[in-house]
Amino acid sequence: MRIWGKVLGTFFGFLLGNIFGALLGLWIGHRFDRGMGIRGAFQRAPSQQQQAVFFHATFAVMGHIAKASGQVTEHEIRVASNLMDRMRLAGEQRVRAQESFRQGKESDFPLRETLAEFRQASLGQRDILRFFLEVQLQAAFADGQVEANERAILQTIADELGFSRIELARILAMAEAQMNFFHRQQQQGSGQGQQYRQEPPSRDRLKDAYQLLGVNESDSDQEIKRAYRKEMSKHHPDKLAAKGLPPEMMEMAKEKTQEIQQAWEWIREARGIR
Fold first, then answer.
1. Nearest-angstrom CA–CA distance, 183 and 25
2. Which residues of 10-19 are buried (b: 16+ CB within 10 A; e: fewer)?
3. For 216-249, b where at least 16 C-beta lie within 10 A, e where not — what string?
4. Cα angle, residue 242 at apex, residues 3 and 141 outer, rounded to 5°
5. According to the 3-state scheme, what is the secondary structure of 60-121?
6. Which of 63, 84, 96, 218 is most buried as measured by Cβ atoms within 10 A of its Cβ?
7. Can you tell me the distance from the alpha carbon of 99 to that of 90, in angstroms, rounded to the nearest whole number?
């Protein structure tokens, strides 16, 4: 539990403004403890317009990636449909998502303009931009591999959102590990989920766990623990929601943190980390 922001904020606030200053310092300190910083402390709650831009860009860009090979495959459509299911979209919301996906498939789809609008609406917040990129990677991995045309689009997305080639390669590796996690969870089924968590992971699963945290087996226990905490902080659903994540995507953020937690548990047990 992070409390030093609250403690220091209250202390210095009291020195500057007695009780009122202490309360203000406590509030600002609380925002720091949640990882939002001074910018986040005074930032307005995300508007419906910001969330609508995120929602549209997500499915439109996904449709654009799906069309990269020239024809949208049945598997790519299933990936988009599965994403809508995971977001529990129905009725008008699902129709909106399908329409955005269709627009993204058009030959004249304005990819860079759509990304620029999304980046502006998200206020350039890295955690939100990265979450968006991670969602797009699910579309790219729809057939199990990233083809050259898809990789070119992903590079454009990364460029427009401010990620370097090295960062994209790292996120790609982590996304591939996440996809392996997700598919294995699906294959196990809800009835075997408890057994899946109790069984020692295979060598391949443990390798995925390291990749999911963005670390190597040769890294120290302290480095791995630090990476785990960093990834959990980046993907915390409440923090992402405060930065503009649409409510429909909260379930995906929760799934991501569960996968990060599972990866950490596997590594911790394998290495005997306490």
1. 45
2. beebbeeeee
3. eeebeeeebbebbeebbebbbbebbbbbbbbebb
4. 110
5. HHHHHHHCCCCCCCHHHHHHHHHHHHHCCCCHHHHHHHHHHHHHHHCCCCCHHHHHHHHHHH
6. 63
7. 13
Cβ-Cβ contacts under 8 Å for 151 (sequence gap 6 or more): 140
User: Left, alpha or beta for 219 (phi > 0: left; psi -120 to 50: alpha)?
Assistant: beta
Nearest to 3 by CA among 36, 37, 23, 26: 26
Residue appearing with tokens 């009725």: 91
pTM higher than 0.90 for the full model?
Answer: no
Which residue, chain included where needed, has tokens 């401010």? 162
Query: How many angstroms separate the CA atoms of 225 and 150, rounded?
Result: 33
The Cα–Cα gap between 263 and 274 comes to: 15
Q: What string of pLDDT tens digits covers the 274 residues of the chain?
A: 445 444 454 544 444 555 554 454 544 555 544 544 444 444 444 567 888 898 899 999 999 988 887 777 777 787 788 888 878 888 888 899 999 999 999 989 999 999 999 999 888 888 889 889 988 887 777 666 777 888 899 999 999 999 999 999 888 888 777 777 655 555 554 444 444 445 667 777 888 888 888 888 889 999 999 999 998 888 888 888 887 787 777 877 888 888 889 889 989 888 888 7
